[in-house]
Amino acid sequence: MKPAHRRLSALVVCLGLVLAPVAGQGEAQLATTAPAASGALDFRIIVPPVMRVLENSHPPQLTSDADGSLGGQQRLVVLSNMKRGFCVTLRLRSPEVEQWQVQAVPEPGVTLESAGQAYRLCSDRPGRYTMVLRHEFGVHAPGAQAMHWPVQTDISAI
Length: 158
What we know:
By secondary structure, the chain is an alpha+beta fold. The chain has one helix at residues 3-33, and strands spanning 51-57, 61-63, 70-80, 86-92, 97-104, 111-115, 118-123, 127-139, 146-148, 151-157. It has a 4-stranded antiparallel sheet, with no helix packed on it.
Protein backbone atom coordinates (compact mmCIF):
# COMPACT_ATOMS: atom_id res chain seq x y z
CA MET A 1 0.00 0.00 0.00
CA LYS A 2 1.35 3.42 -0.92
CA PRO A 3 2.12 5.97 1.77
CA ALA A 4 -0.55 8.33 0.38
CA HIS A 5 -3.19 5.64 0.73
CA ARG A 6 -2.11 4.90 4.30
CA ARG A 7 -2.43 8.54 5.19
CA LEU A 8 -5.84 8.78 3.58
CA SER A 9 -7.01 5.66 5.40
CA ALA A 10 -5.68 7.00 8.70
CA LEU A 11 -7.44 10.32 8.08
CA VAL A 12 -10.78 8.57 7.38
CA VAL A 13 -10.44 6.50 10.56
CA CYS A 14 -9.62 9.60 12.63
CA LEU A 15 -12.57 11.52 11.21
CA GLY A 16 -14.81 8.56 11.96
CA LEU A 17 -13.62 8.51 15.57
CA VAL A 18 -14.06 12.26 15.93
CA LEU A 19 -17.55 12.30 14.41
CA ALA A 20 -18.84 9.16 16.15
CA PRO A 21 -19.44 10.87 19.54
CA VAL A 22 -21.21 13.74 17.80
CA ALA A 23 -23.62 11.33 16.11
CA GLY A 24 -24.11 9.40 19.35
CA GLN A 25 -24.66 12.63 21.25
CA GLY A 26 -27.32 13.68 18.79
CA GLU A 27 -29.15 10.41 19.28
CA ALA A 28 -28.83 10.69 23.03
CA GLN A 29 -30.22 14.20 22.97
CA LEU A 30 -33.06 13.05 20.79
CA ALA A 31 -33.87 10.23 23.20
CA THR A 32 -33.77 12.44 26.29
CA THR A 33 -36.05 15.08 24.79
CA ALA A 34 -38.66 12.53 23.72
CA PRO A 35 -41.83 12.36 25.85
CA ALA A 36 -41.72 9.76 28.61
CA ALA A 37 -43.59 6.57 27.93
CA SER A 38 -46.03 5.30 30.53
CA GLY A 39 -48.31 2.35 30.80
CA ALA A 40 -50.25 0.35 33.31
CA LEU A 41 -50.57 -3.36 33.70
CA ASP A 42 -53.64 -4.92 35.22
CA PHE A 43 -53.04 -8.50 36.32
CA ARG A 44 -55.90 -10.68 37.49
CA ILE A 45 -55.35 -14.10 38.90
CA ILE A 46 -58.54 -16.09 38.75
CA VAL A 47 -58.62 -19.18 40.92
CA PRO A 48 -61.40 -21.49 39.80
CA PRO A 49 -63.73 -22.80 42.50
CA VAL A 50 -62.70 -26.24 43.71
CA MET A 51 -64.71 -28.68 45.74
CA ARG A 52 -63.44 -32.26 45.64
CA VAL A 53 -64.04 -35.40 47.58
CA LEU A 54 -60.52 -36.77 47.85
CA GLU A 55 -61.63 -39.88 49.71
CA ASN A 56 -64.94 -41.53 50.52
CA SER A 57 -64.07 -44.91 51.98
CA HIS A 58 -66.46 -47.28 53.69
CA PRO A 59 -67.02 -51.02 53.70
CA PRO A 60 -68.84 -52.15 50.55
CA GLN A 61 -70.90 -54.56 52.64
CA LEU A 62 -71.95 -54.43 56.29
CA THR A 63 -71.92 -57.52 58.50
CA SER A 64 -73.79 -57.88 61.76
CA ASP A 65 -72.05 -57.65 65.11
CA ALA A 66 -72.50 -60.20 67.90
CA ASP A 67 -75.56 -58.29 69.14
CA GLY A 68 -77.12 -58.35 65.65
CA SER A 69 -76.65 -54.67 64.84
CA LEU A 70 -75.15 -53.46 61.60
CA GLY A 71 -72.55 -50.72 61.59
CA GLY A 72 -69.63 -49.35 59.69
CA GLN A 73 -67.13 -46.54 59.56
CA GLN A 74 -66.93 -44.00 56.76
CA ARG A 75 -63.98 -41.69 56.10
CA LEU A 76 -64.54 -38.54 54.04
CA VAL A 77 -61.75 -36.22 52.95
CA VAL A 78 -63.01 -33.01 51.32
CA LEU A 79 -60.95 -30.21 49.78
CA SER A 80 -62.64 -26.90 49.05
CA ASN A 81 -61.60 -23.33 48.28
CA MET A 82 -65.21 -22.10 48.31
CA LYS A 83 -65.44 -18.87 50.35
CA ARG A 84 -68.63 -19.88 52.15
CA GLY A 85 -67.72 -23.54 52.53
CA PHE A 86 -69.63 -26.70 51.68
CA CYS A 87 -72.09 -29.26 52.99
CA VAL A 88 -72.07 -33.03 52.62
CA THR A 89 -75.50 -34.65 52.79
CA LEU A 90 -75.76 -38.30 53.83
CA ARG A 91 -79.00 -40.08 52.79
CA LEU A 92 -80.25 -43.62 53.15
CA ARG A 93 -80.77 -45.41 49.86
CA SER A 94 -81.90 -48.72 51.31
CA PRO A 95 -85.52 -49.41 52.33
CA GLU A 96 -84.43 -52.22 54.70
CA VAL A 97 -83.00 -49.71 57.19
CA GLU A 98 -85.45 -48.51 59.82
CA GLN A 99 -83.09 -46.76 62.24
CA TRP A 100 -79.89 -44.92 61.51
CA GLN A 101 -77.49 -43.02 63.71
CA VAL A 102 -74.30 -41.23 62.77
CA GLN A 103 -71.56 -40.12 65.13
CA ALA A 104 -68.56 -38.07 64.00
CA VAL A 105 -65.07 -37.84 65.39
CA PRO A 106 -64.72 -34.11 66.13
CA GLU A 107 -63.07 -32.18 63.28
CA PRO A 108 -62.40 -28.45 63.83
CA GLY A 109 -64.59 -26.31 61.58
CA VAL A 110 -67.10 -29.08 60.72
CA THR A 111 -70.58 -29.52 62.18
CA LEU A 112 -72.82 -32.60 62.02
CA GLU A 113 -76.58 -32.21 62.30
CA SER A 114 -79.62 -34.36 61.69
CA ALA A 115 -81.79 -33.16 58.79
CA GLY A 116 -84.96 -35.24 58.83
CA GLN A 117 -84.13 -38.57 57.17
CA ALA A 118 -80.57 -37.40 56.43
CA TYR A 119 -77.47 -35.99 58.08
CA ARG A 120 -75.51 -32.90 57.05
CA LEU A 121 -71.81 -32.24 57.59
CA CYS A 122 -71.01 -28.59 56.94
CA SER A 123 -68.04 -26.25 57.03
CA ASP A 124 -68.38 -22.50 56.55
CA ARG A 125 -64.85 -21.83 55.27
CA PRO A 126 -62.37 -23.22 52.73
CA GLY A 127 -59.90 -25.92 53.67
CA ARG A 128 -59.12 -29.62 53.69
CA TYR A 129 -61.24 -31.65 56.08
CA THR A 130 -60.98 -35.27 57.16
CA MET A 131 -64.20 -36.57 58.69
CA VAL A 132 -64.51 -39.99 60.33
CA LEU A 133 -68.11 -41.14 60.76
CA ARG A 134 -69.49 -44.13 62.65
CA HIS A 135 -72.83 -45.42 61.27
CA GLU A 136 -75.23 -47.67 63.18
CA PHE A 137 -78.15 -49.24 61.32
CA GLY A 138 -81.28 -51.00 62.49
CA VAL A 139 -82.91 -53.23 59.85
CA HIS A 140 -86.46 -54.53 59.35
CA ALA A 141 -85.40 -58.14 59.11
CA PRO A 142 -83.92 -59.23 62.44
CA GLY A 143 -81.11 -61.68 61.96
CA ALA A 144 -79.96 -60.10 58.70
CA GLN A 145 -76.34 -61.07 58.32
CA ALA A 146 -75.17 -58.67 55.62
CA MET A 147 -76.24 -55.62 53.67
CA HIS A 148 -74.67 -53.45 50.97
CA TRP A 149 -73.55 -49.97 52.05
CA PRO A 150 -76.86 -48.09 52.36
CA VAL A 151 -75.68 -44.46 52.49
CA GLN A 152 -75.56 -42.05 49.57
CA THR A 153 -73.12 -39.13 49.89
CA ASP A 154 -73.78 -35.80 48.09
CA ILE A 155 -71.70 -32.64 48.33
CA SER A 156 -72.74 -29.07 47.58
CA ALA A 157 -71.38 -25.55 47.87
CA ILE A 158 -72.93 -23.11 50.31
